[in-house]
Structure formats: C-alpha cells, structure tokens
Amino acid sequence: MLRGFYTAASGMLSAQYRQNMLTHNLANAETPGYKADQGVARSFPTLLMQANSSQAGNVQNKQPIGSLSTAVYMQEQLTNMRQGDVRQTGSATDLALMQAGTTDNQAVLFSVATENGERYTRNGNFQTDADGRLATASGYLVQGIDGNPIQVDGDSFQVESGGTVLVDGEVRGTIQVVFAENTNALEKDGDGFIERKRGHYLPPMAMKRSPFNCNNKHLKTAMWIQLKQ
Question: Is the dihedral of CA 166, 167, 168, 170 positive or negative?
Fold first, then answer.
C-alpha cells in the first residue's frame, strides 16, 4: 500500500514540474526570440511480482501475480530551437536569424557580451545604447566577429547579408553569428540568453538581415496541453 502512495506522489511531482514548464511557456508567449521548453518524463523499471508457495518435498511453486510500476520522474527539460513565427516590427534596429536549411536539432544565434561572459540569443530586438553601440533590450552589447561592440550611432545603419554593418557606407563591423550543430549542447541562462555547455564550441557563420522578431511560443499547443490535463 505504501509503495502505491510513493508511485502516486512521484506522478504528481512530475506533473507539477511539467505544469510549471508549460506555465512558463505561456507567460513568455509574446517574448521576442523565446524558445519553448519541452519535458521528457521517464518511469523507473517495472517490477514483476510473483507469489512463492512451498509444496511437498520443499518444491517452490512460483505463481505470477502481475507487474508493478514503481515511479515516474521528469528526466530532462529540452528547449525547442526550431524557427518560430516571424513578423514585421517597424523598428530599424530589429534583426532576425532565419534558420533555412537547418534541422530541428540545430540553431543559429547572435553572440552577446554579458557580465558572465559570452552568451547567445535568438532575440533580435536590438537597440542602441547611450554610446551609440548596438545592444540588446537589457543593455548587453552585441558582439562583432572581432569580439568588440559595434558602433552604429543611431538606427540609420544597414546590415548586409554577411552581417557587415554599414553607416553611411562606412563599415563599422560584422555581427557575430554562431551555429549550434546540436542544440543539446545549449542550455538556458536566464533573461532570454543561452549558453553552451562545457566542452562544446560554437563556430561562427554568416547571417541575413530581416527586420523581424522570432518566437516559437507554440501558444495553441501549450494551451491544448494545459486543458488536456
């Protein structure tokens, strides 16, 4: 009987973790560049139960009773890095990375300098800071391929297909864009940023400009899962 309580409790905990994850996805439904999380649940090995009875001559008679499920747990939480919805924003400083030609397990990301080191993001909702440098909405500087910030001096800059930034025809730098061959090498780091796991390297690649924001919120899917539970 107690074993049944443990099994039920593990199921409730797993459902709670999943509910928190879906709630977080819904809360960020309008966050530019947000990538939805998906949970993977797994059960512990199933036990095969049998009854032992002794017969004459100390012969053991084993009678199968049935299987017993022990517990279930949330094995891991994965981030869905597929290309999301794209829309016009009307802002000259907004950029988007189009993942044409990539698989669902690959990703293209902007590189940003933070106080914790280099981080990555799909959020192209950029702006210019007080010094005229290209930055994220939270003030972190967008990195160029030389590791330095990009001086744009306003929103009247142009970005070529390779990521080169031009102001009145003058080259101001090239936006650093990296390619993740396997998104399992990435993990979220808060504030819309992503970091690479230790031992993984993200090589740079070319980019294309498009004044859009991307979001793979999957709002209908998340709401359907919520209502289904």
Answer: negative
Residue range(s) defining the domain that contains residue 133: 83-215
Same domain, yes or no: 94 and 69: no
Residue 172 forms part of a structural domain: yes
Q: What is the pLDDT of residues 68-94, one digit of tens each?
A: 777 787 777 788 888 777 777 778 788
Using an 8 Å Cβ cutoff, are 206 and 81 in contact? no
Kind plus residue range of the DSSP H or E element containing 3: helix 2-27
Tokens of 54: 């002794």
Express each pLDDT in 34-74 by its tens digit: 888 888 877 777 777 777 776 655 666 777 777 777 778 77
Calculate the dihedral angle through the C-alpha atoms of 165, 169, 171, 173, rounding to the nearest 10 degrees: -10
Number of domains the chain is built from: 2
228 within domain boundaries: no
